[in-house]
Amino acid sequence: MATLTEQPAPEDLFRHVLRTLLPIVNADLGGFFVFDEDFEQVLLGTLEGDPPAESLTPVGVAKVPPTQVPAERWIREHQRPLHLYRLRDWQRFPPVNPGLRELALRGKLVALVIPLRSQDELVGVAYLWRHRHPRPFLRREIREAERWCQLAALVAIAGRLYEREAQARQALARVLAIDRLLTSASSHDAVGRAVVGPLADFLGVESLALWLRWGEDHKVFFQNIADETLRETLTTWEFSWSHFEQLTSRPQVVPRERAYETLGSWVEALPSSVDRIILCSIRSYANVVALLVGWDTSSRSRRPPNTRHQMLEAAAVLLEQIAVTLVRLSFRAELERTISDLRSLLKVSQRVVSTPSVADLLEEVERVIRDRLRYDAMIFLEPDPDSPSTLRVSWGSGTIPESRVGHRIPLDRSLAGWVFRTGRELLITDTWEDPRTYHRPGQPFPLRSLLLFPVRYEEQTIGVLGLGRKRVSPFSEYDRELASLIASELATTIRLIEQRHALRRQAHHQALLATVSQLLLRDFDPRSFAPPLVQQLSEWVGGSAALVLQCSVFPNRVVATVDALSSHRLPDLEP
């Protein structure tokens, strides 16, 4: 029996079913064809039996899109078997294969086309042909063929699921590999050189141009663009970054004529064979920081639609990482030109990219800047999940009660609440002179001079960072710049932590899907794959699990259970 790492391929399982089915229904040749979700291509095509001498090879048959096969279009619409044995049947549903078509029109071919369905979804079709003795199929033969095709449908959907999971795993691996390159990049040039090649491969395009922004200036990077005239055109292309503010930040495939409206006349310089272009903007907050344009010069080099869709979805995560890297590099370049004293903080910023929590980040930042800013308390407030009208201190330093983790302040009667509601920073010389200050009952607010910054991501305030002094000692412009940088890095870190958690959850789910797919492909007998499948589900949910299967192919009910919680016994599911 095949192991989890050496499970039989879907084609092998299909051939095994065909070798069993063909003698049962007295067919000479049979085939299974699995479609993609969009009914635009054949993912798997398997033939077994004795083809007539006039027919083409199986490979030639499997490459034909289902939309170009009349019988398969009819099956998709009506979802029932199609029996072809009369001349008028073949005139309406001629075979795509020239050899089979000639036999059919000569009355020497009979075919049975059966849909492969899974939960009312058409996943493929089965063909059974008779050419030696071309007599119609009997009703009992048709019923028997339909029963076996129910089993083949399980193989088809498992094969499609395994293919989808493999593509998702490949996309995730590429995202992580490019993310490692971005972590080591120290300049915009390094980012451009590191990502332009992998991005082209990741998005499945033959050629790609990537513009990275410096203020209102930019530099373009190329992948597989050998034409010197085109390279010169793209290098000297003048545009305003504001022109692309309405362009989506998710990669999209657009017709050439639509791309002309967005990109301008240089699109005419592309090869005439380019009819579709992939483009998107890369953003940080509302600002466009990069522009990506890719294309294929040959339609044969394009990915299938379903594959490209999955890769584009995963690419959106990678593009966010590129934007974060570009923004961080821009901040660092600006600060190195204006505030040399912040070099140590920038080093901290680079180290905390992989920080596991906001608390770890703030503790590291405080270690570096406390002596520079000379504050008595630093706090970070977030919306209270239990009370929408208050802010809650999620991290704090200092001895005052207001910096204690868990301390709550009202949104509508406090300085921090004003910053959170308006999204604007606040520098207060003396809080006792400001009517917006929140004083605890019977106790004045202990901090006199205060600096508050909103922590924002994508035009949304997600928290408030506050620095305070017990005495009236106004914060300087240097202090304000430093606090602004901390708030920006805090927003970026929160987003990165959320993305890492999402990637871990996705990897965990994909690992489960991979294990389930392997179990289904290893053995198509439910009695064999049901027990280990239930065991995997039980381990995943951390509790008891049960599986009950019953179909016409296996008249006896298949029951598998795992009772992980002895205090909650599973009911008896046996028939």
UniProtKB/TrEMBL annotation:
GAF domain residues: 9-166, 357-504
InterPro entries hit by this protein: Bact_Sigma-Reg, GAF, GAF-like_dom_sf
GO molecular function: phosphatase activity
SMART domains tied to this protein: GAF
Keyword Phosphoprotein in annotation: no
UniProt keywords, alphabetically: Hydrolase
Keyword presence, Hydrolase: yes
Entries under Pfam families matching the protein: GAF, GAF_2
Protein name: GAF domain-containing protein
Organism of provenance: Thermomicrobium roseum
